[in-house]
Amino acid sequence: MGLFDLFKKKGEPAKPSERELQRLERLVGSKLSQNIDRQEAIEALSRMGTRESAAALLKRFDWQLDPSITDQEEKEACLRAIVAVGEEALEPVRAYCQRAESLMWPIKVLKGIVSGEALTDELLALLDRYDTEYIRNPEPKVQLITELAEHKTDEVRTAVEPFLQDASEPVRFAAVTTLFSIGSEHSIPALVAALDEEESRRVKNRIAQGLQQHGWVIPEELREVCARGLTEEYRLTDGRVVPAR
Question: What is the pLDDT of residue 230?
Fold first, then answer.
């Protein structure tokens, strides 16, 4: 008997028992499950369209499968099904993000369910869980900060600026890039302070490049610190960062 036979159809699919739901969730969440069984489980959960089925489908984002085309297809199917649940899926998505090793797919889900200020609020709430201390896996911070580059508000700017001091170099680089994408001169003091304290040449040059491209005038009281932090590839002229040659 196939998995679809678990659900008797009389118009709408019958609500599955807790045991059946757990079985489907195990199939979706296991890399060791047979492809056909797992894909039937994804389809069965997709038909339910409930908060519980959305929570189960999120488990598919935990792992990767070879060949990658199958992995992509399965995850896209889960994405569509979770988004179809609508706002009822938000709570399971938030809970999933608390433990996820990567937020790439959950962010796609959020973007499919909410937009505008509501999406900004969801992303900021996720970022608020993190501080700038060392963590084993900084990837979720990088992904959130990178995504926030599309949300050009003062609230986002003030939320991202502290991550210029993050323990992880990729997080600091992402914070610099996002702040320049937002493009607010209010970030100049934080960027200049980061430039002076930064040890990574890559991050230093990214800050200098951004200051040059925006053509921002460094305030008089920050110019000495700014000049001190520049690598030999840049210099400060009349308050603006320019290439050294």
Answer: 98
pLDDT beneath 50: ranges in the chain:
1, 4, 6-10
- In this prediction, residue 188 carries a pLDDT of 99
User: For 50-62, b where at least 16 C-beta lie within 10 A, e where not — what string?
Assistant: bbbbbbbbbbbbb
Q: Residue 208: in which H helix or E strand, if any?
A: helix 201-214
- HEC sequence for 161-186: HHHHHCCCHHHHHHHHHHHHHHCCHH
How many C-beta neighbours within 10 Å does residue 225 have? 15
Amino acid in the structure at residue 231: T
Q: Please answer whether residues 168 and 136 qualify as being in contact, where contact means their C-beta atoms are separated by less than 8 angstroms.
A: no
Q: What is the rounded CA–CA span in Å between residue 164 and residue 172?
A: 5
Instruction: Report d(CA 93, CA 89) in Å as an integer.
Output: 6
Q: Name the nearest CA neighbour of 208 among 228, 234, 190, 183.
A: 234
Per-residue tokens: 16: 């599955």
CA–CA distance from 146 to each of 33, 37, 167 (Å)? 34, 36, 17
Q: What is the sign, positive or negative, of the torsion defined by CA atoms of 225, 141, 76, 65? A: positive
Rounded CA gap, 97 and 84, in Å?
19
The domains of the chain are located at 1-88
